[in-house]
What we know:
single chain, five-stranded mixed sheet, two-stranded antiparallel ribbon
Amino acid sequence: MTFQPEQAWRQRIAELEAEVAALRQELAQYRQEAPDVSLDADDLAARKAFVGFDEDTAAQLAALRPFMEREVDGLVEAFYVHLRRFAPTRQYLEDPQVLARLRAAQTAYLLSLTQGVYDEAYARQRLRLGQTHFRIQLTPRWFLGAYAVLFDLIVSRLQAHYAGQPERLLAAARALCKAFILDMQLAVQAYIDAYQAQLRQANAALQQHSEELERRVAKRTEEVLQSGKLAAIGELAAGIAHEINNPINGIMNYAEIIAEELPEEHKLGAYAREIVFEAQRIAEIVRELLAFARQDTQEHSPANLADILDASLTLIGRHLEKDGITIRREYSHDLPKIKCRSQLIQQVVLNLLSNAHHALNARYPTYDPNKIVRIRTRLIRKGGRPYVRLSVRDHGIGIDPANRARIFEPFFTTKRHQGGTGLGLSVSYGIIAEHQGTMSVDSVPGEYTQFDVDLPVDNGWETIEGLESDAAASGGG
Ligand code: HEM
């Protein structure tokens, strides 16, 4: 018995794991602590002390106020002439509205340099400026370089202003240099902060993505394990079933002969009939085992899920209705056909309906308006592939969480005393896996159970000649 889906899953898991590993590596790069960026009075004082920005510096700058008021327009103009000479900075100056704001901002900035008060409000404005440049993706290379441009423009005008007074010129230039260095630090600090905030966001998004991938890998792994377990048990079951088939037929035949040979009233006759009954039960289990081991060879062909459902309901619908169960069909129209072995899919449907039947009878022994089984079909997409989803939902007793993990295991049953073999769901699981589909369950004890069967619209099986055009016409393929 070959379980091809297992290979496909392994392949998929390997891909997902590689994806997770790549993401982890990416995350590791981002996982650095953000530097402390809060700016209070002490912080600002420490920064100023380090670059030697003292009272004298402030006084020197304040003394430049009349000069700056006179020169500011020309400085701004010359600054933009420079920025226009380079394509990366020029592109920011094309929109007249932005340019107008920029001129105003730049003028205000230059005037503030000589305002005489260099407090937290002053520093905060510098931080804001850094954030704005980050937002417009202007990199440090350009905005830091621009300080050299401004410095040069100002000092060359100061040369004329302080002609013949080299000491005053030098003192003014030194003060200006300190102010610019302080500004550059703050601008870069803000830029880094904004950058790290963005990285933290990216980190959180990646983390979420990686967790989601891990969840998916865990789910797939569980499916592969389940499929591997089923494959092994399936082979074993096939072997055992063949071994048992012959002797059990012998036992059944001999017991029948004995029963026929003995007079009606003979008590051994009852025993013999009991043997026949029990042997039949064993034969039934063997038949199921063989089905589980997938010994049958029905051809596959494109089929309508709705037809399969209706055929199944024809078989056991009455049975359910007799027990007061309402069957709700919620079929999505225009579903594509699926390539399948329809008898096997029908076997799955019958099994699901029979389970729903038991669960509803166990919760509501007599009539109840809630005694409903809902059969729903729809088209979904998973990993970019279209699937037809069949959901069978009942509001019966539900499945105990401890049992839920085991219900697809062969021979696991909670209905042993009612003749359950524990093969129904594991056989169904194998059938769906062979169709490259998945089968999952969701349940809240005492409330509901829902089985979802997802069958790929195209499972790679070749379409049988003549039916292909039919499938394409219905939107499938
Ligand atoms: C000495 C370097 C620079 C300083 C002091 C400076 C100053 C400023 C200021 C104060 C603002 C307003 C910030 C706000 O409060 O939101 C601003 C915004 C801006 N800056 Fe700069 N800047 C500099 C370099 C540059 C450079 C090299 C460019 C490149 C063209 C540039 C382009 C812009 C743009 C496009 C805006 C946003 C304008 C808007 O849309 O409102 N800046 N800058």
